[in-house]
Amino acid sequence: MALTLTPEQEQRLTAYAKKRQKPVERVIEEILAELPQETPLEQDTNVLPTWGARKLAELRASGAIGAFQDRPEDSRELAQKFQALAEGRGDFYGAA
């Protein structure tokens, strides 16, 4: 499959990939992986997405979901760092 992008779209995609420190091809694969698995026949076009579904789509589009997936900490360690930071017990990169 060939994809034709405008110069602006190509620039935006390249900048996004650079920001994520990944090749453009990998970024495109990740975006495609997030698409729904439904076939067009399974989709009900008469139903508007719920508020939650719209917000989830916005968060995915903005890159907020998965923003910390490349961090070395597991979710518990990351949560502890955020809690310590919020409570003023230390900085994010150092020990509390």
Walk me through what this model shows:
With 96 residues, the protein is mainly α. Helix content is 50%, strand content 0%. It has 4 helices and no strands. The relative contact order is 0.06.
Helix-strand blueprint:
Blueprint: H1 7-20, H2 24-33, H3 51-62, H4 75-86
Largest sheet: none
Regions with little confidence, pLDDT below 50 for 5+ residues: none
Radius of gyration, taken over Cα atoms and rounded to an integer in Å: 18 Å
Distance between the first and last residues' Cα: 51 Å
User: What class would the helix/strand composition place it in?
Assistant: mainly alpha
Helix content: 40-55%
Q: Total number of helical segments?
A: 4
Features:
96 residues, 4 helices, 0% strand, extended
Summarize the structure in short:
By secondary structure, the chain is mainly α.
